[in-house]
Amino acid sequence: MTNQTIEAMLNRKSIRKYTDEQPSDEVIHAVVRAGQQAPFAAQLGSVLMKRSTGGKKLPFGAPVLFTICVDSHRLELVMARRGWKMVTCDLSILIFGMQDAAYMAENMVMAAESFGMGSCFLGGAPYQADKIAEEYSLPPRVFPMVQLSMGYPAEDPPPRPRYPLDLTLFEDCYREFSDDDVSRAMEVMDEGYLSQEYYRRAGYMIPLEDDRKETHSYETYGWTEHISRKWGQWLRSPTDLLEKLALCGFPMNEDDEA
Amino acid sequence: MTNQTIEAMLNRKSIRKYTDEQPSDEVIHAVVRAGQQAPFAAQLGSVLMKRSTGGKKLPFGAPVLFTICVDSHRLELVMARRGWKMVTCDLSILIFGMQDAAYMAENMVMAAESFGMGSCFLGGAPYQADKIAEEYSLPPRVFPMVQLSMGYPAEDPPPRPRYPLDLTLFEDCYREFSDDDVSRAMEVMDEGYLSQEYYRRAGYMIPLEDDRKETHSYETYGWTEHISRKWGQWLRSPTDLLEKLALCGFPMNEDDEA
User: Fold this and answer.
1) Nearest CA to B19 among B55, B56, B53, B61?
2) Of chain B residues 134-193, which have a CB less than 8 A from chain A?
3) Are residues B204 and B104 in the same domain?
4) B33 shares a domain with B91
5) Stated pTM of the model
6) pLDDT by residue (tens digit) across A208-236?
């Protein structure tokens, strides 16, 4: 069972090299407008945008960089006009607002593909929220969730592997993963990335911390080792992230009895 | 600037009435497979599924209900096999995992449209995480983020209004909203929902709490009043949500010095 939409989704891959061509305002507007129409409840997503015009250097040399934010500020202005004050706790705002923003962002990804453009998410925005807030003069109650570079592709990599479907979709009951299931998940990811020479081409292996000795080379360093080094070494403490949230007006420390 | 993809996104609306027709396994698999291929980093999304077969009653009478989860469990099994232990704090897992799950979910929404199906998100899953965890026998470290009903539509509502594009997309600098901007945002939303008789047809206005007197009727109750009553009355305390997260193995109370 397939069709054009499914094929577009299956063939989509992140693009990290772009031509110099600037997407027209019309194309950009169509992409973001299609993003806005994504479902969910409260339109808590806002989109900041920067172009590489005027010599600005953007990630991956892309002509356009979007920063997609959880935006409670605009809603609070609307609520004030109706005589209401936001009382929902910050954690719930994040849970709902990140979804609003993410559904919009993914529509933008596929909308870009439909115009022959490519894109790549940059996940570091929450950890650089202070710099982004300054750069775009964000008011309090706007939190940068993710960035998305976009433009016309100057590379054509293959789509990247994913876990087997039966290890992601579970009918009626979550799967009790067997040793064999875990092996299958790892094989498809590692053999897929190794056969695409993903990390060798990128020239990047995540360094080992705490004096661990390197035992991998580009012959053996696959997706599961890469991802393990991230989640096994990085972002141990929430302190920095909580500070960034507080700085953006989401102190996350609501009184339970509020 | 438009094309088939953009039109599909602009014409998409949530569907709350479905025919009895069961989508085939092939269609479901294509939808979830297209979801899996969504970009981001760590494949932290998993999809639970239930069919209405055997007399199960699902929300909106839909034939299929998905529950899209942030799944750290599967990644931790993979990491363990490589000799790694998850150290990333729960807040960061949520920030990244919700994005993985949401990008997947939005691909599923548009993939469903491409097969002539409709869908509707149900945002309450995090607040019912305990019941969902029991229903699907979730292991610890899997958190239900959102539910998505899906099937062939038995209604054809119009697409719903959205804020004007210039109040969502900001180039170089966040917009300082003028009084007129706020009025424009409210007008397009309220006049749009009122002209579609959205709340009258749904037969639903959110009740006022704290002895506030009702001053609205279906003649005047629009989107901004509706949304204000949610965010101005609901989910004041994060306690319940934090309990649900803890129950699912995300205690969110990491020691800062860990």
Assistant:
1) B61
2) 136-139, 142, 145-146, 159, 162-163, 165, 167-174, 176-177, 182-183, 185-186
3) no
4) yes
5) 0.97
6) 999 999 999 999 999 999 999 999 999 99
